[in-house]
Amino acid sequence: MVPDTEVVSRFQVPATLDAVGAIQAAVEEAAEDVLAPAAMFKLTMSIEELVTNIVTYGKAEGTDIGVVITVGKDRLSVELDDAGVAFDPFHQAPEPRLNQSVEDRAVGGLGVFLVREMIDEVAYHRSAERNHIRLVMLRPTAKTDGAAQ
Fold first, then answer.
1. 3-state class (DSSP) for residue 147
2. Measured distance CA(127)–CA(72) in Å, rounded
3. According to the model, what pLDDT value does residue 104 have?
4. How many Å apart are CA 122 and CA 149, to the nearest integer?
5. Is the dihedral of CA 38, 119, 20, 112 positive or negative?
6. I need a surface site. Which of 16, 120, 129, 142 has the fewest CB within 10 A?
7. What are the strands of the beta sheet with 130-138, ordered from one edge?
8. Which residues of 55-85 are buried (b: 16+ CB within 10 A; e: fewer)?
9. What distance in Å separates the CA atoms of residue 148 and residue 120, rounded to the nearest whole number?
10. Do strands 64-72 and 130-138 pair parallel, antiparallel, or not at all (unpaired)?
11. Are 123 and 2 in contact (CB under 8 A)?
């Protein structure tokens, strides 16, 4: 954990599509006085994309998704962990072919790209047979190099 941060919420939800709303609601509550509305929108949209991928493609259904939300003086972090198949969305997902026309492009593939574009810092690691994804939104005065700490 980053120094000067506080865990404001820690919980588990069943790995179903219903988890999206529950996690978003907890993040919105934690971020209410921390993030600007635009940053909160980007974060909750990213959570929707990643949790949907965990449930739909990660074969995590029937297990739980762990959620830890921390707030620090310069950031709000959300960590998601799941027992699905090992997959680093930030390095293993194929890059979308943005130079192709919409008609020629395969359906899908933009979600993780958009997450990387919208979130200030992203990170993935695997431990204890679980995927761990960390999303960090910085407060407006903070600066970063894009790698979650």
1. strand
2. 24
3. 63
4. 9
5. positive
6. 129
7. 5-14, 64-72, 75-82, 130-138, 121-127
8. beebebeebbbbbbbbbbebbbbbbbbbbbe
9. 8
10. unpaired
11. no
Q: What is the dihedral of CA 111, 117, 118, 123, to 10 degrees?
A: 90
What the block records as the tokens of 98 is 């943005």
Q: Which two tokens stand for residue 89?
A: 């969305």
pLDDT at 26: 97
Q: Taking the chain (149 residues) in consecutive chunks of 10 residues, what is each chunk's mean pLDDT?
A: 81 96 96 91 96 91 94 94 94 71 64 90 96 93 49
CA separation for the pair 134, 149 (Å, rounded): 9
pLDDT on residue 99: 63
Task: Say if 129 falls within a structural domain.
Answer: yes
Reading the block at residue 22, the tokens are 């529950």
Number of separate domains in the chain:
1
Q: What range does the domain containing 75 cover? A: 5-138
pTM of the model: 0.85
Q: What distance in Å separates the CA atoms of residue 145 and residue 133, rounded to the nearest whole number?
A: 17
Q: What is the DSSP string of 41-104?
A: HHHHHHHHHHHHHHHHHS--TTSEEEEEEEEETTEEEEEEEE-S----HHHHSPPP-TTS-TTT
